[in-house]
Design brief:
alpha+beta, single chain, 3 helices, seven-stranded antiparallel β-sheet, 148 residues, 20% helix
């Protein structure tokens, strides 16, 4: 089975895209960034969710949602990016270390994929400058999802 968990900052709000880009965009654009965990597993789904809530979520400052659909349907597009398979991902290795240390997790973690989602808001927003300035082709894979 596969589950998608998206973590949002509870106190985050839309920020100016100038923070993300080397050159300011021609129009005013804003963004929100989240973290997406794709977990392929066998076993007890409740045990998996408990693991996610204990290891990946800060219950004071973050909210957890089903990440199989976008969190913000008003975004002009969403840039989703993460580390290539052969690149060292310290966050992923730390999560896997927690999992391996569990005596009886109640589920078998088959595959873990971490991605960042950048939701970009504003008329006329195009993904090219975001891909250029955020994604490094040597270590990242990425996908752009246009608004429906």
């Amino acid at each position: 089975m596969t589950r998608f968990f998206e973590i949002l900052g509870r106190f985050d709000h839309e920020g100016d895209c100038q923070k993300l880009l080397y050159a300011p965009p021609a129009q005013r654009l804003t963004f929100r960034e989240t973290v997406l965990y794709k977990i392929e597993f066998d076993g007890d789904e409740a045990a998996l969710e408990s693991f996610v809530r204990q290891v990946l979520l800060d219950p004071v400052s973050q909210d957890l949602r089903d990440g199989s659909t976008p969190a913000f349907d008003t975004a002009a597009f969403t840039l989703e990016y993460g580390m290539k398979g052969g690149a060292l991902d310290l966050e992923k290795e730390t999560i896997l270390g927690y999992y391996r240390a569990l005596e009886n997790p109640g589920f078998t973690l088959q595959k873990l994929t971490l991605r960042r989602r950048v939701y970009v808001f504003g008329d006329g927003a195009v993904p090219a400058p975001f891909i250029r300035d955020i994604c490094n082709p040597a270590i990242h894979t990425w996908e752009v999802r246009q608004a429906a």
